[in-house]
Amino acid sequence: MKKLLIFVSFILITAISSGLYAQEKANNYVGAIAKKKTYSALYVLNSADEKHISATLRNMNNALEDPRLKGKLALELIAFGDGVAVYLKDGKFLDQLNLLRNKGVRLAQCENTIRERKIDKSGLFDFINYVPSGNGEIIILSAEGWAIVHP
């Protein structure tokens, strides 16, 4: 009986110590380590909500400024459906888009959306690129290993 009590005490002490160690390690966690030379991420935007669009553009800039990814990150923004609002000349996103564009971000618009909604390209910024379909862009880049981000 005495041996059993000693064994159970040992197990309890080990379990408590392990839990404290794990908690201590968690408090010192600084995030994942970027071990690869390059990373690629596609941000997907299909909402016209101005707060959502602004947050997406801000998230992209934050990723570019992450010290672990700085100089290692390729980004693209694909807009389709209601997301076309991000590229409208009469919208309010020119400054945020220029900031991203100047950092090398590819800005792409789905041509299906333009055609189906009968949007004149002259109403969109002239610096954006067009892809045949937003979903096709997601599928292709995903298969090529790009992270797909839906903020």
Features of the shown structure:
151 residues, Hypothetical Protein Ychn, Chain: A, 5 helices
Account of the protein in words:
- The protein is built from 5 helices and 5 strands.
- Helices cover 44% and strands 17% of the residues.
- The longest helix has 26 residues, at 2-27.
- The mean pLDDT is 89.
- The protein has a 5-stranded parallel β-sheet with strand order 4-3-2-1-5, sandwiched between helices.
- By secondary structure, it is an alpha/beta fold.
- It folds into 2 domains: 1-30; 39-149, DsrEFH-like (Hypothetical Protein Ychn, Chain: A, 3-Layer(aba) Sandwich), CATH 3.40.1260.
- Helix 4 links the parallel strand 3 (106-110) and strand 4 (129-131).
Write the layout of secondary structure elements.
Layout: H1 2-27, E1 39-45, H2 50-65, E2 73-79, H3 94-102, E3 106-110, H4 111-116, E4 129-131, H5 134-143, E5 147-149
Parallel strand pairs: 1-2, 1-5, 2-3, 3-4
User: In what order do the strands lie side by side in the largest sheet?
Assistant: 4-3-2-1-5
pLDDT averaged over residues: 89
CATH topology grouping of the largest domain: Hypothetical Protein Ychn, Chain: A
Main sheet attributes: strand count, strand direction, barrel closure: 5 strands, parallel
The structural domain count equals 2
Order of helices and strands: HEHEHEHEHE
Supply the CATH architecture of the largest domain: 3-Layer(aba) Sandwich
Radius of gyration: 24 Å
Which consecutive residue ranges, at least 5 long each, have pLDDT under 50?
A: none
| Helix coverage percent | 40-55%
Share of residues in strands: 15-25%
The structure class reads alpha/beta
By CATH, the superfamily of the largest domain comes out as: DsrEFH-like
Q: Could you give the distance between the termini?
A: 59 Å
How many individual β-strands? 5
The shape, in one word, is globular
| Oligomerization category of the chains in this entry | single chain
- Alpha plus pi helix count: 5
